[in-house]
Design goal:
This protein is mostly helical and about 250 residues long. The chain has helices spanning about 1-15, 20-30, 35-40, 45-55, 60-75, 80-90, 90-100, 105-110, 115-130, 155-170, 190-215, 240-245; strands at about 135, 140-145. It has a two-stranded antiparallel ribbon with strand order 1-2.
Length: about 250
Amino acid sequence: MAQTAQLINVLKKALKAHGKTYADTARHLDISEASVKRGFSQKNFSLQRLDRICQMIGIEFTDLLQMLKDSATAPISGLTLEQEKEIVSDIELLLVTVCVLNRWTLEQILNYFNMSELECVKRLIKLDRLKMIELLPNNRVKLLLAPNFQWQENGPIQQFFQKKLQSDFFDSSFRDERESLIVINGMLAASSFSVFQRKMEHLAREFTDLSNDDAGLPLEERNGMTAVLAMRPWGNGIFSEFKKYRRN
């Protein structure tokens, strides 16, 4: 059943790639568009209909199977909402996930954190099932993430870290030589805001590139770092102390 659902998801992407819509599919199958939508939603098509849809876009059913095989090993660029919920619901799984994303080995995780090898390997198996890693012999880890991998915007992972940021991240004087805090205020036109936003996005990508470049260094030469890049208008709850002075 799970493989059938994956096969239909691959077919849906193939339709989009060939510029075909649900309406086109309905006309080809001589059924209603609602039936086509229901078939894709419920992941429920007969083999005959799957084959006819393949014919419509000029591919063989065997081509669809190969596409499914290729997609199973292709780097992923993100997880589903349910997959993120699964990770964030298990704090040890989240911990192992963060370590693995930063190229920690099983041995390094066990040396640094109070976790049994069995519990750690169980979490690695979960990440393997989520297609984030490939668990190799001797519990070696191969990352399977695309360079543009991102957590869901405002999804479970982002919400978890945002919540923790408020209580943990800013609980510091930022005087350590490895810490930095820059707070700036000003007034920007919409065009200038767009320019600055692009620069923030570029800086975020540069941080990721540097992290990837340093991934090959020994663990003792790397420090875990979190950078927060954020910008909000004054009127959206910032400087609440000033709010009582505003005219209605």
